[in-house]
Every structure is written in C-alpha cells, then in structure tokens.
Amino acid sequence: MFEQSFKNIDDILHKDAGCTSELDYTEQSSWLLFLKYLDALEQDKAAEAELEGKAYSFILAEVFRWDNWAAPKTPDGRLDHNAAMTGDDLRDFVNGSLFPYLAGFKQRASGPNTIEYKIGEVFSEIKNKIQSGYNLRDVIDLVDELRFRSQTEKHELSHLYEAKIKNMGNAGRNGGEYYTPRPLIRAMLQVVAPRIGERIYDGACGSAGFLCEAFDYLSSKPGLTTADLHTLQTRTFYGKEKKSLAYVIAIMNMILHGIEAPNVVHANTLAENIADIQDKDRYDVVLANPPFGGKERREVQQNFPVKTGETAFLFLQHFIKSLRAGGRAAIVIKNTFLSNTDNASVSLRRQLLEGCNLHTVLDCPGGTFQGAGVKTVVLFFEKGAPTRRVWYYQLDPGRSLGKTTPLNDDDLAEFIALQKTFADSTKSWSVDVADIDAGTYELSVKNPNGGTVVTLRTPKDILDEIAVLDAESAGALETIRGLL
C-alpha cells in the first residue's frame, strides 16, 4: 500500500541538491514521518478525550500543527492549494520557524522521558536538507497520504522503514553499524527469552533494531493485560546512541513499531565511568551489536578497568557492569576477541569467564553483516556465576551469504533447537573451562567434529552476484549521465 509512496519520496529527494545519499533520504523522510505521526497521535488523543468529555491540550501550537503548515485541507478533505505554502515560502518557514520552535521543546519539556523532550532532541540534532521548496512540497504531499491510525498501517510502515534502514546500511562502508540482520536478532531473543517486567538495554542502539524486535517479541505474547502493555510502553526498553542520525532513526523506528515515547538517550555511552553504575542503573537483559574497530581517546579509556582503544571491548565491560546479578546478555563481537593475545583481550576473557556464565558462543559465517569485512560471534552469558562449560555452534547456512542471499530465520532454526539442551552435532560441541588455557583463556572456535570451515561459492553464485553488481553500476552510471 505504502511502498510506492516511499519509492516516490526517494525519487524526489534524489533530484534535490541537498540530498546526496541513502543516508540523507532516510534522515529527511524521518523528520517528516515523525511530524505526520505526531499529528496522528494528537488527533487520536484528542478524539479519546472528547469521548470521555475531557479537554485535550495539544503539544504543538496551532500554527505548527501538520494540518496547518504542511497540509491545510478544504472542507471536502483535499489539499487547499490557496493556503498551502510552497517554494521558497515553505522552505523558509521550515528552516526559520518550524525547526527552531520544535528544537525549543528540549528546554521546555518537563523531563527527558516525555515525547516533548524527544521532539526537542530530534529537531536539535537534524536540519532540513531539502533545498528546493517545490521538492519539499511534493514530498510533504506524499507523506500526507500515509496513515498511522490502524495497527496494520503502522505495521506496514515499520516494515518499509526497516527496509530503508537496511538500504542505508548497505549503502555505506559501515553497514553493520546501522543494520544487524533481523533473523540474527530474533534468534538472540529466542535464546535470551526476555519476560514482561524485565528491563532490556542496548547501549549502542544504532537504529534500535534490537529494541524494536524485542518489543515485537514481547507484545505478541498471548494474554497481555493493559498493565503489561503499559509496562512495555514505559519501562521496558532502554537505549543510548552517540550519533545524531542513528539517534533520530532509532526514535522513528521505535515509534513506528508502536512505542510512543522511546527511552532512548542521545549520549556517548562510553563517556560514563563504569565505576559510577549503581544497582538502580542495572538491567535484566542486554542485547547489542556494539561498533568495533573504533578507537576511543585516552580520557574515555580511563572510564574502564581494562584500558583499550577498541570500542567493542570497552562496550563489553560496560555491558557486564550494566547487568544485574542473574541478568542475561547476547552481544555480537568480532571473532578475533576469542583468540587475540593482547593484554586487554586476555583480561576481558578472564573477566567474562570468572564473573559470568558464558554458556553459548554462536559462530557466524562471513557475509552475515553486509558491508562489514569481519567475521563475528555472538556471546550469550549470564552474570553472577563463573563459566563451567561453553557450548559452541558453527552456523553454516550451506550457501555463501551476500546482498542477494542474506541470512534468514530458517538458517538459525537448528541453532535455536539445539541450544535448548546444548546438544552435540556436526556443527555444535562443548568445551570444559578446565580444558581452557589458564594463561591465555583462549576461546577460539575449533570444531572437533571437522565441521565445514569454508563453504566455497559455486561459479553460478559468483556469476549471479557479478550480474547484480553490474546492474547496480549501470544504474548508477545512468543517474550520473542524467545529471551531466
């Protein structure tokens, strides 16, 4: 229903001088979707209040409501072209009046967990990049056709938005930073099995894929009460994100999934000294794919007992400290963590094995993350008791993973089934901690059953991928030609 609208919006943004990449398209669609959603939310709340005979106090002043500046209507419900701004008038209103007004909510809001504060944060972090007021008018008209009123509509919009995030991740070198494959997240959730009432945390939340999937997992449980739904809305999902664009996308993604005022904070998680984390700050479940390969400054490293420039290793320390006793975690990390011989890696492995029960290691094949050239593992652990045995599973989907052959839910079904009993198979085995070298704590994936280490690609797979890449290159060249 909405897919064509999304395509048309991207086509318009593609023509605009201010939008140069898939990242810009997603960012610019996001702020407009956010305001359209906010309007739908306010209309629903006003209608509810009216039914109860109460007055509803609108968040936005009348002049800044969607139906006033973006899509004024005639009595028969059509766009009122006489009242609707366009061209330079529209662009100047958005840049000079709308954005400053919305950004001001950050100062005016009663607290950081309110939707008012989120409005202020979103519009403090981004700016309108659509340079042509005529393009802006065309995009607004398309966004105005989208409806957020029913669950079906929200569900479809959330799927389309996820597809945009996936494209955005694939567009840049840092694909894994924005997009963790959803089948992998769903498998992690099946193992960790969060329950309603538990607090779930991702301190490197990116586009909030883990939190959105966790919401879908919990909200689809049978027999949910109104109190359960309130718990899910207000005190279940918590995230932090450092980058402005990812933060805005995380907020929008959670809203589209049905979380009205997401508890996502725009902050550098690693700037917090982990010695300051108190019991009240701890969580029951941590799900995350922290950025790896980054290099953190010395003053940030001072916040951690194990000093290292590797971002992912700092996040791992933060996550362990952020878990309550008995809390559960599933964390994606590059597989070299299991075998590196530097002091930081050895110390961290020791800390993990002695302070937590690292019960499962899922070894992911190359190509699991689009655009990321590293191999990864998922660490599943419980805090509070030392590790006795580690169960390994070597994921082998039987094909080479790539853009046209991504990971799917069926690929992970065997892992989920065998993990319940830590069963041995050609792809799974257990290692006693007593057999691990006490000097290095090496945890490398070494399948004693001689499981397939490398799946060679067939010539047909290679030719298919070349054909896809050639088609993409040809499309890009045509676009460039059109601009000349």
From TrEMBL:
UniProt entry keywords in alphabetical sequence: Methyltransferase, Plasmid, Restriction system, S-adenosyl-L-methionine, Transferase
Stretches of the chain forming a coiled coil according to its record: none
DNA methylase adenine-specific domain segment(s): 154-448
Catalytic activity: a 2'-deoxyadenosine in DNA + S-adenosyl-L-methionine = an N(6)-methyl-2'-deoxyadenosine in DNA + S-adenosyl-L-homocysteine + H(+)
Presence of the UniProt keyword Transferase in the record: yes
Family membership noted in the UniProt record: Belongs to the N(4)/N(6)-methyltransferase family.
Protein name: site-specific DNA-methyltransferase (adenine-specific)
Provenance organism: Aquincola tertiaricarbonis
